[in-house]
Amino acid sequence: MRPNEGLHLRLLRLLRDRGAVSRAELADRLEVPRPRLLAEVERLVGAGFVAEAGMAASRGGRRSTMVELNPDMRFAAVDLGASSIDVEVTNGRLEPLAAYRESADIRSGPKVILHRVNEILAKARTDEAYERLDAIGIGVPGPVSFRDGVPVSPPIMPGWDRYPVREMLTREHGCPAVVDNDVNIMAIGERYGGVAHSVDDFLFVKIGTGVGCGIYLAGQVYRGTDGCAGDIGHIQVDAHGPVCSCGNVGCLEAVFSGAALAKEALVAARSGSSPALAERLAAAGTVSALDVAQGAGEGDVTCIRLIRDGGRDVGRVLAGLVSFANPSMIVIGGGLAHLGHILLAEIRSVVYRRSLPLATGNLPVVLSELGPRAGVAGAAVLASDLAFGEAS
User: Fold this and answer.
1) Is 381 inside any structural domain?
2) 94-148 pLDDT, tens digit each
3) Residue 57: what pLDDT?
4) How far is CA 72 from the centre of its chain?
5) How far apart are CA 125 and CA 138, in angstroms?
């Protein structure tokens, strides 16, 4: 149990996570007196959050009635990437009822991107995924003031600084909305339904167009005073490295990310040091991080080196975080997770070598289990928590 959580929030989360439960079992699981529990259930039934769900199996006496979340509850989960929009509409148990994914350029600006999100949600309504939404959760690829619901000086999102994302979505859809950065929602999703299920202290590292870290401490996301904790992509790893989008030099994100790897791949293709990349450049006129992954799978030495070099830089940053925070798990996700076990092995090697044995003796470093769904899964959890908070 988290401190200061109301009974209503604990009760609604339990119904979200377990489905229909008898009143008797609810009282046992929540460790509250039966009369208090019954009164709270009746209040939530009256408020439209909870519904009757038939009779429970007999426990030896009078049969208890089952309750469940109102089956009409609907949440919208939105994950904005640098080059994509992912949207899911879920029921109260966070089961997807509709899913949409398309390419989009975050640099098009908030009006264009959020207008498209609204169009997608309108299509979901037309497709009868929902009649009304109870809450919206959205993640964006940049720093966010979680308190204010706005992006703040996001390096790869021109035009988004202080844009009222939460206010606009709330006004447009008539329901509360919550805004977080994309790596935090991925971490939340992975803890809710992925490899970090119920792990209280872990790091979720997203390596994609940008690099970031979602931090779970004592069972809760740690966002920092202003909401920018975990921005590890802007930790310097090379004092003589390339200029980063943030204006500094040699940041991890500038040295190893989707864009950085594509640049390195282009150099290797043009120089002829990588036959696999040279062949792909000749065929397509360009090369990408995916080409590096495929080249490494074919045994191309240069592709393997590029991945290992990047994994070494990530590992050095993570080794410092392990020494500082002593997490019980590190999860690697994002678009570059498809680089697979060459990347993972290098990160593990550096983390285990550079951190104290006490911190790494029981420290798994693993790939995300949810993959590209981590973001929308976490956005749905945030949306449900927001809606449940309204039940107080």
Assistant:
1) yes
2) 999 999 999 999 999 999 999 999 999 999 999 999 999 999 999 999 999 999 9
3) 64
4) 25
5) 18
Distance (Å, whole) CA 304 – CA 300: 6
Start-to-end CA distance of the chain, whole Å, equals: 17
Tell whether the model's pLDDT for residue 60 goes beyond 80: no
How far apart CA 223 and CA 218 sit, in angstroms, is 13
Q: pTM for this one?
A: 0.93
Residue 60 dihedral angles phi and psi, to the nearest 5°:
110, -15
For residue 236, what are the contacts with CB-CB under 8 A and spacing of at least 6? Answer: 248, 249, 250, 251, 252
CATH code, domain carrying 229: 3.30.420.40
Same domain, 238 and 315: yes
The domain total for the chain is 3
Range of the domain at 208: 198-368
Does 2 fall in a domain?
A: no
Task: Decide if 349 is inside a domain.
Answer: yes
Share the mean pLDDT of the chain: 94
Diameter of the chain by CA atoms?
80
What letter would DSSP give residue 234?
A: G
Q: What is the dihedral of CA 324, 253, 343, 209, to 10 degrees?
A: 130
Same domain, 243 and 286: yes
Q: Which residue, 268, 265, 257, is CA-closest to 335? A: 257
| Contact (Cβ atoms closer than 8 angstroms) between residue 213 and residue 206 | yes
Neighbouring CB atoms inside 10 A of 208's CB total 25
Q: Phi, psi at residue 347, to the nearest 5°? A: -60, -45
Give Cα separations from 340 to 343, 346, 356, 382 (angstroms): 6, 10, 25, 29
pLDDT average, residue stretch 43-57:
88
Dist. CA 134–CA 73, nearest whole Å: 6
Q: Is residue 1 part of a domain?
A: no
**pLDDT of 144-176, one tens digit each?**
999 999 999 998 899 999 999 999 999 999 999
In a shared domain, residues 260 and 228: yes
Strands (E), the chain: 21-22, 50-55, 65-69, 74-80, 84-91, 96-103, 135-140, 144-145, 150-151, 177-181, 202-207, 211-217, 220-221, 330-333, 365-367
Q: Specify whether 275 is located in the same domain as 320.
A: yes
* Amino acid sitting at position 290: L
